[in-house]
Amino acid sequence: MSGTDLRVDLAAAFRLIYEFDMHESVANHLSAAVSDDGKKFLMNRRWMHFSKVTASNLQLLDSEDPNIMPSEEAPDVSAWHIHGNLHAAVSSARVILHVHPTYATVLSTLKDPSILPIDNNTARFYEKITYDNNFGGIADSDEEGRRITKIISGKSVLMMGNHGVTVIGETIAEAFEDLYYLEKACKTLVLAYSTGQPLKVMSHELAMKTAESWNAFRDASFAHFEHLKSVLDEKDSSYRD
């Protein structure tokens, strides 16, 4: 994917997260690596609303150049410590989506935030999630960023206790698809809990089989993302600017 295409897709992800009401004020951040080692990456500028992000106003950052932080161009401090440390340490983390969507965040506030396999969508994430139950407040230090990085290593989803979620993917389409299904899975689980009735949780074997079955639908991520971009284009194509 060219640099221009990457910028367009990342900008589209911001607009789609806004359209799906998974954004939060001018907070939360999405990033995509542009260098082979992942240390150079694109991210939204400090305090820019998701509905205003465009391909051209995404900021190019270097995780090995902290000199930007005292400058007027400094990104959000928590974004720098989370995304900067992840991109610096995990080269396979090509795309990082950190947001606080309603149902995933609700689940993160429970004493046990586990996403139990009770349907296709919840089973999609079986054994692909790591959990952080040691919330350290707003990630305003390298120490907290490194702690989060260590926890998420090797997994594609981090449920951040008392906080939100971070999703990692190889491409923007795949990471967005995981975020999309993750929020649906969390909504299903929260609503199931709200009935007060016992959950019918899949066996380990069935959950594994269901999770593995999702691999056959990998290309659906790209089809879904392209369709969603076409919807954006019909409504407001300014994200491409």
Descriptive notes:
The protein is an alpha+beta fold and 241 residues long. It has a single domain (3-235), classed as L-fuculose-1-phosphate Aldolase (3-Layer(aba) Sandwich), CATH 3.40.225.10. It has helices at 3-19, 77-89, 102-108, 120-123, 142-152, 172-194, 204-213, 220-235, and strands spanning 29-33, 40-43, 59-62, 95-99, 129-132, 157-160, 164-169. The protein has a 7-stranded mixed β-sheet with strand order 3-2-1-4-7-6-5, sandwiched between helices. A hairpin with a 3-residue loop joins strand 6 (157-160) and strand 7 (164-169). Helix 2 crosses helix 5 (142-152), helix 3 (102-108) packs across helix 6 and helix 6 crosses helix 8. The longest helix has 23 residues, at 172-194.
Distinctive features:
alpha+beta; L-fuculose-1-phosphate Aldolase; 7-stranded mixed beta sheet; 7 strands; globular
CATH superfamily assignment? Class II aldolase/adducin N-terminal domain
Low-confidence stretches: none
- Computed CA radius of gyration, to the nearest angstrom: 17 Å
Q: What is the mean predicted local confidence, pLDDT?
A: 94
Strand tally is 7
How many helices?
Answer: 8
CATH architecture: 3-Layer(aba) Sandwich
Following the backbone from N to C, one meets helices and strands in this order, namely HEEEHEHHEHEEHHH
Structural class: alpha+beta
* Share of residues in strands: 5-15%
CATH topology: L-fuculose-1-phosphate Aldolase
The general outline is globular
The tally of structural domains comes to 1
Main sheet: strands, sense, barrel: 7 strands, mixed
User: What separation lies between the terminal Cα atoms?
Assistant: 18 Å
Assembly type: single chain
Strands side by side in the biggest sheet:
3-2-1-4-7-6-5
